[in-house]
Amino acid sequence: MKPLVFTLRNTPEAPVDLGPLIPDLLAGMKVAQINRLKLAHGKKSVSVAQLFSVTGMDPANIQIRHGCDKLLYIGKGMSHGSIEVSGDAGDFAGQRMRGGTIRIYGNAGSWVGNSMYGGLVEIHGNVESYLGAGMPGAAHGMSNGLIYVKGNAGDRIGDRMRRGTIIIRGNVGSFCGSRMQAGTIVALNKTGEYPGWNMKRGTIVLAGQPSHMAATFMSCGELKMQFLRLLFKQLSELGNEYAFFKNYSPASHRFAGDLANNGKGEILILLQSPSKGK
Amino acid sequence: MRPSLKINGVTIDDTFAEAFPMKATRIIITAMSVKWAHRAANSIRGFASSVIACGCEADIERELNPSETPDGRPGISVMIFAMSTKDLEKQVPMRVGQSVMTTATTACYAGIHSDEKISLGKNLRFFGDGHQISKVVNGHRYWRIPVMHGEFVCEETAGVTKAIGGGNFMVLGKTARQVLTACERAIEEIQKVPNVITAFPGGVVGSGSKVGSKYKFVKASTNDAFCPTLKGQVKSELSPEIGSVLEIVIDGLDEAAIKQAMRVGIKAACSLGPKKGIYRISAGNYGGNLGPYHFHLHDLLS
Predict the structure, then answer these.
(1) What's the whole-number average pLDDT of chain B?
(2) Terminal Cα distance for chain B, rounded
(3) Domain residue spans in chain B?
(4) For position B219, what pLDDT does the model report?
(5) Pick among A199, A227, A230 to test the B interface (most B CBs inside 10 A)
(6) What is the pLDDT of residues B166-201, one digit of tens each?
(7) CB A202: neighbour CB atoms within 10 A?
(8) So what's the architecture of B21-161 in CATH?
């Protein structure tokens, strides 16, 4: 079956909530019905047809073309299927998603993978802040799944995350993995200030020294971590995009922390990093 | 038993091996080198020849290349069979804790994933005394237990699958030395077959048993019909020229694997022929009443 393609006609004036356009909600609908669906557009409500030209038929395989940062909540709460965005995406892509795949071939906004429960989000450009984090008032951030960012990420990525994996190949901002409850963050280039600030448990793997580290992280020395052998091998088997993990060595400097909050988390700074400075 | 089939001059009895359902799991042990993976694997498969008294039957299935293991180090896959999942649950975590975790540089992973599970690191984690760390990688949960060599990484659970135990054949010949040589050849071939193990020491049983005994408190006793020293004393299965009998017992994940192992094993044993003292191949059964799986030698080999 041909993928269901939404081609944006013009850049919208106001943010558009694309939450209704997920495989779960579009299953069994005809194109005519989809065209009549209402989307929140700023304060107004507009039909899909006004914003997009819709072709194709397979609701489990959705493509969004000419994406831009006004398109919010892409793939919100989806549980299966795939959504591909060519162009940029706005905030909240993959919010509370449970499964399936979102691939964004462009940049994305803040709160990508916000409190997601599972699935895969791949961003081939940069993202802004609060990647995989939890909204104020939510119990925790992402609780499973994988987020992969090829470019750079902003501040407070993985804030209060509970489980799952975040991989950033570019630079990350400050407070990476702040207040983490558990889970794994792998940042493969430069890191800003205070990684792991107030983290309770969890693992932050960094390719190099962060620009500043909190005093509440204690050195456990330079070690070959068996866990990193497992992690890198398992990640390298996820597909061609991840095969570069084969080149990573488990030698790292382990810091335990944040001792201000239980101290059962860790920051592993890799001693040899093939991609650093790239 | 009427002999009608011969391979290389060796008579194949018209009989069958009787096998019964078991439960099995597979674990993968990795270490710094294949030598140290072997140390752990040999330890975990120790005292696991027969469920009669060991609680489980275990053996090394094969060596694994670094590319085949979860952490990219050399490894060994070990299969463990027991009469029930409950028995596996009792045996496997205890053996992993005492044999694998104690071996330097090892890690332990599940080699089978299924809905039915037994614990691996699930209870071992408490050895970490609060410093243990749980990690979920690619959908599987692992426990990282800080130990003196570094970190013992162990998957939380291993899958359990239906399996078959007790596939067997017997090699009958002139002397123990000649029969053992034939059995060694058979074991060499059987080790190449995937999804089967031969749990007895060296894969060969020197003292095959029958069910029951004249003593009420003994569950299994010597298979007197195949004991060469009792030829004149009991209702023997042995003709005068037979001086020694050895049995090869095969546990496998399915009927096809056991059939294949029996086939290659019997052919290898027969390759020596009567000139080298190998006269007959037979198989152990209990009249067909005990196990639902019957492997007829003639069907296998024709």
Answers:
(1) 95
(2) 17
(3) 5-19+165-301, 21-161
(4) 86
(5) A230
(6) 999 999 999 999 999 999 999 999 999 999 999 999
(7) 24
(8) 2-Layer Sandwich (3.30)
